[in-house]
Amino acid sequence: PESLKARRNAVVATLQELQLEVSVIVTIMSNDETMKQMETMRDSKTLIQYLQTHFEFKLELMETLYKLAKYRYECGNYSIATSYLYFYMLVMPPTDKNYLNVMWGKLASEILVQNWDAALEDLNKLRDFIDSSNNFSSLQLLQQRTWLIHWSLFVFFNHPKGRDNIIDMFLYRPHYLNAIQTMCPHILRYLATAVVINRARRSSLKDLVKVIQQESYTYRDPITEFIEHLYVNFDFESARQKLHECQTVLFNDFFLIACLDEFIENARLMIFETFCRIHQCISIQMLAEKLNMNPDEAECWIVNLIRNARLDAKIDSKLGHVVMGTQPASPYQ
């Protein structure tokens, strides 16, 4: 349609106009030597002086660059937007009126081009900026942290270090745990999943259970209920039912679908480990029911656990039993 063509022409014209205005900055950005030199300068005043001396640089151009970066972002040119925003953050001091918006724009752009290393770096910078700022009211701080919690899910469920970082930020940073409990308890689903699939962080389970119990009156879903049934009520039948429901939840969740198989495997292991702490001799048939598996599958699964030295047990195939090894009981159990 003609209206769409006219709209496109207007957008292109505005883009060209803004691009022309900041041509000096574009020239600077295309010079690798200059950019390397700029990166070594930590002081904003020195950097601005250097640009004004060696190039026809004016500070007013930065406002136009900000507009151009936003326009590029709105047009879907995210990788170009990130380079403009990076330059802005390099030159301007953190006290600049646009600085917070630029940081948010940079994080969003890196997420949209799926550059997860840069996105994680931007996430940490933005979190430090929010936490150290004195310009926010208590309500604004809470709002900024809530936004950051939601945006961080893109990074945490795509970056290799995300599984550790989500636990550190959501569970062990009091301000962020407080924001989750106050504004968005549904985020507990993602925290709980991260703890379940991260075997190296089993020590966090105790703290997670405490938070889930505290928030159970405001938020529940099959994932948090699975943990509650298993570690608070020791109700294996309810935990089994919830594990079945968890599959549907994970399958339909944008962030969690990639963790589905891993979650089910680790959740079964958690049921099994908890069950083994209570019983010395377990029927494979009963165990299969608790793990939502058929007996042959369950036996094969247990054999693999024993083979990989993750379980001190023997299988009595004639009686169809798993006999647990003599494990010294912890005085705290």
UniProtKB/TrEMBL annotation:
CDD domains: eIF3E
Keyword Protein biosynthesis: yes
Domain of life per record: Eukaryota
Pfam families: eIF3_N, PCI
Sample GO molecular function, one term: translation initiation factor activity
Gene Ontology CC terms: eukaryotic translation initiation factor 3 complex
InterPro entries hit by this protein: eIF3e (IPR016650), eIF3e_N (IPR019010), PCI_dom (IPR000717), WH_DNA-bd_sf (IPR036390)
Keyword annotations from UniProtKB, A to Z: Cytoplasm, Initiation factor, Protein biosynthesis
Occurrences of domain PCI (ranges): 155-329
Self-association state and partner proteins as the record states: Component of the eukaryotic translation initiation factor 3 (eIF-3) complex. The eIF-3 complex interacts with pix. Interacts with mxt.
Name listed for the protein in its UniProt record: Eukaryotic translation initiation factor 3 subunit E
Organism: Embidopsocus sp. OG2453
